[in-house]
From TrEMBL:
<keyword id="KW-0689">Ribosomal protein</keyword>
<keyword id="KW-0687">Ribonucleoprotein</keyword>
<dbReference type="Pfam" id="PF22330">
    <property type="entry name" value="Rib_mS39_PPR"/>
</dbReference>
<dbReference type="GO" id="GO:0043024">
    <property type="term" value="F:ribosomal small subunit binding"/>
</dbReference>
<keyword id="KW-0809">Transit peptide</keyword>
<dbReference type="GO" id="GO:0006417">
    <property type="term" value="P:regulation of translation"/>
</dbReference>
<dbReference type="InterPro" id="IPR011990">
    <property type="entry name" value="TPR-like_helical_dom_sf"/>
</dbReference>
<keyword id="KW-0677">Repeat</keyword>
<dbReference type="GO" id="GO:0005840">
    <property type="term" value="C:ribosome"/>
</dbReference>
<dbReference type="GO" id="GO:0005739">
    <property type="term" value="C:mitochondrion"/>
</dbReference>
<keyword id="KW-0694">RNA-binding</keyword>
<dbReference type="GO" id="GO:1990904">
    <property type="term" value="C:ribonucleoprotein complex"/>
</dbReference>
<protein>
    <recommendedName>
        <fullName>Small ribosomal subunit protein mS39</fullName>
    </recommendedName>
</protein>
<keyword id="KW-0699">rRNA-binding</keyword>
<dbReference type="InterPro" id="IPR002885">
    <property type="entry name" value="PPR_rpt"/>
</dbReference>
<keyword id="KW-0810">Translation regulation</keyword>
<dbReference type="InterPro" id="IPR037387">
    <property type="entry name" value="PTCD3"/>
</dbReference>
Length: 633
């Protein structure tokens, strides 16, 4: 009753009507995102792409690359069969109809020569077919609207006058295209064959057929010229645009600013041209955007000391125009001040200022160069040995969905390699191993160079007892046949004598390494024994009191034409003395004499002194017989 009474009072004194708020529209992945936010990444689990078939989960970087290529190859094969035999893929068994599960239409449906058919081919990105159909329309006297012609120009200039190539498929190149590619200074290549704006190419030919080209027409042509290295032609076309009393759009100016360093030689001339373009933007009342800021900063990377003096004023000017920098902006800024291999005196705090600006922020993709920021930042941290800023960079990677801006698999591999190498260089081994277990192999497949950095970190902190465990990881990661890496591992185990328990694990590890030399992995180059690797292997076995195993390894010197050192034979004789095996001591002397070692007489003298039961006659029979050609490698 009390509840009903208060309810009555509540509704009685309400004067305004209750307004139900608008419902929130959730994305299709909202529930999955909410669930994912409740858990952390499992470092022991494989990548999500391999969860369906754990048996085929890659364990090495080469297997990962092979899996990715085979996956893409399967997609391309499916597209081939769908395009070759489309009639077999028209039946839709899904009820209700699910458009995303049906194959894309790869063949043109309109066969007649018409503007509608031209639009269809443009939308399907069939460059050559669209150009051929456009020529047929011109020959038939059929007018093509300016809007459709501009769409055709966009298609030609974007793909470089050729059909787009399939992803991850090797491109066929001839001598002419290879020569043209070498002349281009772009860091990024077109997804199709390299195209240069030669005389009477399709882009310029279609443009010339326009009776009254508009700003869109000029913009498409200029951007295509800049993309494919025709920088002087781009500025000449821009002059024609101005002579025709037209105004350029922001995309045109962005392309011209990018091309400015290519048409001038001196740093100040490059900057003056950029300033002139910005002034023309103001005169034509063209508002700059984020890509304009990034184009200016990218051009300043080619302006030497002028770039360093103008970088921050450019950012301040853009902020005055309410343009917030993206990760690409900060990437260009860092690249201006930190050149690979250059000294960093007086500018080491630039990275810190950038990190103060971006820390804790979540970024979205706005520029293709956004994916370069994390790689550049961690490279600078590695060059300057700044582990504190490296942690801040890695922390930024975990904010929001910034991880999406790390780039493709190759870029991710570069980032983690630099980050982990810096850890091995600057942190203690416990911290290094913590990161190692967190990243490998769920996120990152380390290269042999990075694993060498890990071995050096173990050596620095005197944690060589972990070498057998690292050796197992080396084999699993596919580095078991890297000779320089294996030899360094053997050298570390043989350098200092550890306690007996550790020496036993070293001995088992050494014998396992010997198997890699004997058999090797299928399809991989077998390692060849060197005198150093054999000596290290014998030393490890002797330290673990594995004299018989060491004796078998000693015989491999003669098998592989390698010469043991006198120090190794002295060490072996000391081990034989502890067991009192006179016969093996004599055999050791014979081995030394067989290699014609200068220390053989001293070895004979040791045997005479330490093994009193040895007959001088037996020792005198050990003569130097150099009947083999041995290598001292």
């Amino acid at each position: 009753m009390l509840f009903l009474f208060f309810s009555f009072l509540f509704f009685f004194f309400i004067e305004e009507e209750i307004v139900i708020p608008k419902k929130k529209t959730w994305s299709k992945e909202a529930v999955l995102q909410a669930l994912a936010s409740t858990v952390n990444r499992d470092p022991t689990a494989s990548d999500y792409r391999f969860q369906d078939d754990p048996y085929l989960t890659p364990k090495t970087s080469s297997e990962f690359k092979l899996f990715s290529l085979s996956q893409e190859s399967g997609r391309n094969a499916a597209k081939y069969f769908i395009s070759t035999y489309p009639k077999y893929f028209q039946k839709d068994y899904a009820q209700p109809h699910i458009p995303c599960l049906m194959p894309e239409t790869l063949e043109a449906q309109l066969e007649e020569v018409s503007e509608a058919a031209l639009i269809e081919r443009i939308q399907m990105r069939k460059v050559k077919a669209a150009v051929d159909l456009y020529d047929q329309l011109q020959q038939a006297g059929t007018p093509v609207s300016l809007d459709v012609t501009n769409q055709l120009l966009d298609l030609i200039c974007f793909y470089g006058d050729c059909d787009p190539a399939q992803e991850n498929v090797p491109e066929q190149r001839n001598e002419e295209t290879v020569g043209q590619e070498n002349k281009l200074s772009h860091n990024k290549r077109s997804p199709c064959l390299v195209f240069s704006f030669r005389e009477n190419n399709n882009a310029e030919r279609v443009f010339a057929l326009l009776s009254e080209p508009n700003t869109h027409s000029y913009s498409a042509l200029i951007r295509g010229m800049v993309k494919y290295g025709a920088y002087s032609k781009a500025f000449s076309t821009y002059t024609d645009l101005l002579n025709n009393q037209l105004k350029a759009d922001v995309s045109t100016f962005n392309a011209l600013i990018t091309a400015a360093p290519e048409v001038k030689e001196k740093y100040n001339e490059k900057w003056e041209l950029i300033v002139d373009l910005l002034k023309q933007m103001a005169e034509q009342k063209v508002k700059p955007n984020l890509l304009t800021l990034n184009a200016v900063l990218k051009a300043l990377r080619r302006c030497g000391t002028v770039g360093k003096s103008q970088a921050f004023p450019v950012i301040s000017e853009m902020r005055a125009l309410s343009i917030d920098p993206s990760l690409a902006s900060y990437n260009h800024l860092l690249s201006i001040f930190y050149k690979p291999g250059a000294p960093f005196q007086g500018q080491t705090d630039i990275l810190q200022e950038v990190m103060n600006e971006v820390s804790g922020k979540s970024f979205t993709p706005q520029d293709p160069d956004d994916a370069q920021f994390f790689i550049t930042a961690v490279r600078i941290c590695l060059d300057t040995k700044d582990i504190e800023q490296a942690y801040r960079v890695h922390e930024l990677l975990g904010v929001g969905e910034n991880w999406r801006l790390l780039g493709n698999d190759f870029q991710q591999n570069i980032y983690h390699a630099r980050f982990f190498s810096l850890l091995c260089m600057m942190e203690n081994i416990d911290v290094v191993l913590k990161w190692y277990r967190d990243l490998v192999p769920s996120v990152y497949y380390p290269s042999s160079n990075v694993m060498r950095d890990l071995l050096q970190a173990l050596d620095t902190d005197n944690r060589l007892d972990l070498i057998p465990q690292i050796w197992k990881d080396l084999k699993q990661l596919g580095h078991g046949n890297r000779q320089t890496l294996v030899e360094e591992l053997l050298t570390l185990m043989a350098r200092e004598k550890q306690n007996q328990e550790v020496q036993e694990t070293f001995a088992e590890c050494a014998l396992d390494i010997k198997k890699m030399y004997d058999t090797g992995d299928r399809g991989k180059v077998m390692m060849s024994w060197t005198a150093g690797s054999l000596s290290d292997l014998v030393s490890v076995l002797l330290a673990a009191q594995r004299r018989q195993d060491a004796w078998e390894i000693l015989k491999l010197f003669k098998t592989h034409n390698r010469v043991p050192s006198e120090e190794l034979l002295d060490k072996f004789l000391t081990c034989i003395k502890e067991s009192g095996d006179v016969n093996q001591a004599l055999e050791l002397v014979q081995i030394s004499a067989g290699f014609c070692l200068p220390g053989t007489p001293k070895l004979i003298q040791r045997v005479q002194q330490e093994f009193l039961t040895v007959s001088p006659f037996l020792l005198s029979s050990s003569k130097c017989s150099c009947s083999y050609s041995f290598s001292f490698k």
